[in-house]
Design a protein that fits this description.
The complex is a heterodimer of chains A (328) and B (361). Chain A contains 13 helices and 2 strands; from the N terminus they run H-E-E-H-H-H-H-H-H-H-H-H-H-H-H. Chain A folds into 2 domains: 53 residues, no CATH class; 252 residues, MetI-like (MetI-like fold, Orthogonal Bundle). The longest helix of chain A has 41 residues. Chain B folds into 2 domains: 226 residues, P-loop containing nucleotide triphosphate hydrolases (Rossmann fold, 3-Layer(aba) Sandwich); 122 residues, OB fold (Dihydrolipoamide Acetyltransferase, E2P), CATH 2.40.50.140. The chains are: A mainly alpha (328), B alpha+beta (361).
Chain lengths: 328, 361
């Protein structure tokens, strides 16, 4: 800060500044009030109801929900000792990890091919985005038709290879989870694609040109300049996709309802089964709470890591930020 | 060693012609400055030499070899960018080392060369810092070092100083000059700052709307501007350019504008009557206070600069007419005082209606 002329009195806050501060506060309130209202009126009751149910044993067909017996932590112990729940967690993690990596690798590759302008770019863009605009249930039914054992996919592959190719995509328990993972990848690669395309387009072109004239190959430039500069974006793309994949329900349900056997019984599927097939509403509520806690931990970790990425980014571009701030 | 030749070099973007068939030969070891207002094609020309833009037509030769189809990294050039273009995630040392690593120079030699170059541009204390921790001037030194270390045959500098403040700019300008002296390499420097061009260049290439307006030494450009545009672009304060006409009367040739009437003497006797622009640098305008002579104008504004004092007049055109007097002697002059202006015929320029300079006989 520039040196101020000495003042006799403590710095006085001008009327203008007061009214300015008031206006800012009012603006903040206008934005926050609807959010708080939404939280209090819609989310809080649901959270409390779920909490109530997870401590009271209630079956829909047995008596009023208000008279259900208090069972303490019983339901939580039951869920946590349920091996099926453990497997559901593992399946969800496997599904989310696999599909996140798949989406990211393909999405990033497409984004890299697309990030420099070329003729017909807009058309490719639309084509690559289409899967994301398709309703998951439509994806599931179309896939069911395509993947039928004597359906078009197997038939075409057999014709191309010239050998009989007939995996039972939809009935083989070893193939089912990978199959739905592939569908998830197909469905959501555009999401990673869009984020990575935005990230690639946002990298300033001068450092890349500097590397080019200093003798770096395309591969070196990618590895040593573009990738490090993209780190925060990559991280964001991975985290968002992972959280979404953990909650995937429509395709898994429409295609498999958790089967064959329990091969595709992921967390959302198992919770749904418990609540609406076995009518164990309270156990379902306890499960939901546990899953919510798990997700909160993951999200907090993610936020922590994102903060760190942002700090490193700020450090990198610290000078630019300072210059923009107008300080010497 | 590098001699760079541009033959009918052209670049168009759709229907916009950025560079219009320019021809230029830059000798080995020469310091050439491409200068002109923004959008004149100077940066595009430099980027074509670097290999970042493909010419629409024409040839670029380095030492006689056509390099149009060579990748930037195969042209043996070094470039310094306006935005420094440092790698923000690498330390200063890693930044400088990058080019050597790409050329597979062994590690011990790399370290020695990084150190030597860092000493050369006085940034050894910065080697372990991140670019984000360096000031604008320091960053540009690092960028210079990163280019220097690869020992290129030619340095391409794209407005390297325009993001710095005036004091730093002067300092780094001197640095560029010193490096050119020491290295004896070819420098091609792009700027829109006429002062930078005047102080640095062996030869100045003035560009305008994709074409070369004039090529010459700084002295040439200053004292023999080829056109109205060049005359106007160089010099601070810039040349007085007065629109008016040439008339033949009483057996002599005169220039007349709204408020001025100047005897062009026999030197311009060959100029036919008609519209023309008279140019005279402020330092060549004589001022007197006896209120006599053909051109007496009231002073409109007095600007004491210390070494000189500028006096502004209203000559009836859009631009103010400026005279420079040495020292602060005239600083106390009152606004409105009538001043007699004298035009030294040896320092008068005349520009035709096409904007080109009309030479005296």
């Amino acid at each position: 800060m520039a040196a101020r002329p000495p003042l006799d009195t403590a710095p006085k806050v001008s009327l203008r500044e007061v009214s300015r501060a008031r206006a800012i506060r009012r603006f903040r309130l206008t934005i926050l009030v609807p959010l708080i209202a939404l939280f209090v009126l819609v989310l809080m009751p649901v959270l409390f109801l779920q909490l109530y149910f997870s401590f009271h044993q209630w079956s829909i067909y047995l008596g009023s929900w208000w008279d259900a017996d208090y069972v303490g932590l019983n339901l939580f112990t039951e869920v946590l000792t349920d091996p099926r729940f453990g497997w559901a967690i593992l399946r969800s993690l496997a599904f989310a990890t696999g599909s996140t990596i798949g989406c990211f690798v393909i999405g990033f590759a497409l984004a890299y091919l697309m990030h420099k302008p070329f003729r017909g770019q807009a058309l490719y863009y639309v084509v690559f985005i289409l899967p994301m605009l398709t309703v998951p249930i439509v994806v599931a039914y179309t896939a069911e038709m395509l993947l039928y054992q004597s359906g078009p996919v197997n038939d075409l592959i057999s014709r191309i290879l010239g050998v009989e190719f007939k995996p039972a995509w939809l009935t083989d328990p070893n193939v089912a989870l990978p199959a739905v993972t592939l569908l998830e990848i197909w469905n959501w690669t555009p999401f990673s694609f869009i984020i990575m395309l935005a990230g690639l387009s946002a990298i300033p072109k001068e450092p890349i040109e500097a590397a080019e004239i200093l003798g770096a190959s395309k591969w070196r430039i990618f590895w040593e300049v573009q990738l490090p500069l993209l780190r925060p974006v990559i991280f964001l793309a991975l985290v968002l996709r992972f959280l979404e994949a953990m909650a995937e329900f429509p395709k898994t349900w429409a295609l498999f309802q958790g089967g064959p056997g329990t091969a595709t019984e992921t967390l959302p599927v198992y919770i749904f089964l418990t609540t609406w097939q076995y009518f164990e509403v309270s156990k379902g509520a306890a499960m939901s709470y546990i899953v919510m806690m798990l997700m909160i931990v993951i999200v907090l970790l993610a936020i922590q890591l994102l903060r760190r990425e942002k700090r490193s980014l700020d450090a990198m571009y610290g000078k630019a930020a300072r210059e923009a701030g107008g300080e010497p | 060693m590098a001699r760079i030749e541009l033959h009918n070099l052209r670049k168009t973007y759709g229907s916009v012609v950025a560079v219009k068939d320019i021809n230029l030969t830059i000798e080995d070891g020469e310091f050439v400055v491409l200068v002109g207002p923004s959008g004149c094609g100077k940066t595009t020309t430099l980027r074509m030499i670097a290999g970042f833009e493909d010419p629409t037509a024409g040839e670029i030769r380095i030492d006689g070899r056509v390099v149009n189809d060579l990748e930037p990294r195969d042209r043996g050039l070094g470039m310094v960018f306006q935005s420094h273009a440092l790698f923000p995630h690498k330390t200063v040392a890693q930044n400088i080392e990058f080019g050597l690593r790409m050329k597979k120079v062994p590690a011990p030699e790399r370290q020695a060369r990084v150190r030597a170059v860092a000493e050369m541009v006085r940034i050894t204390h910065l080697l372990d810092k991140m670019p984000g921790q360096c000031s604008g001037g320091e960053s540009q030194r690092v960028a210079l070092a990163r280019t220097l270390v690869t020992n290129p045959s030619t340095f391409l500098l794209d407005e390297p100083l325009s993001s710095l403040d005036a004091k730093l700019r002067r300092e780094l300008r001197a640095e560029c000059d010193r490096l050119h002296e020491e290295l004896k390499r070819t420098f091609i420097y792009v700027t829109h700052d006429q002062e930078e061009a005047m102080t640095l260049a062996d030869r100045i290439v003035v560009m305008r709307q994709g074409e070369i307006e004039q090529i010459g030494s700084p002295l040439d450009i200053y004292s023999r501007p080829a056109s109205y545009f060049v005359a106007d672009f160089f010099g601070s304060p810039s040349m007085n350019l007065v629109a008016g006409e040439v008339v033949h009367e009483d057996g002599g040739v005169r220039f007349r504008s709204k408020k001025l009437s100047v005897d062009l003497t026999a030197r311009y006797a060959h100029v036919p009557p008609g519209k023309a622009t008279l140019g005279i640098r402020p330092e060549h305008v004589g001022v007197g206070f006896d209120g006599t002579g053909a051109n007496v104008l009231p002073a409109r504004l007095i600007e004491p600069l210390g070494k000189d004092t500028l006096i502004y007049f209203d000559d009836g055109t859009e631009r103010a007419f400026v005279a420079v007097t040495e020292g602060l002697g005239k600083a106390a002059l009152k606004v409105g005082t009538p001043v007699s202006l004298a035009f030294d015929p040896r320092h008068i320029y005349l520009f035709g209606s096409d904007g080109r300079r009309i030479d005296p006989k």
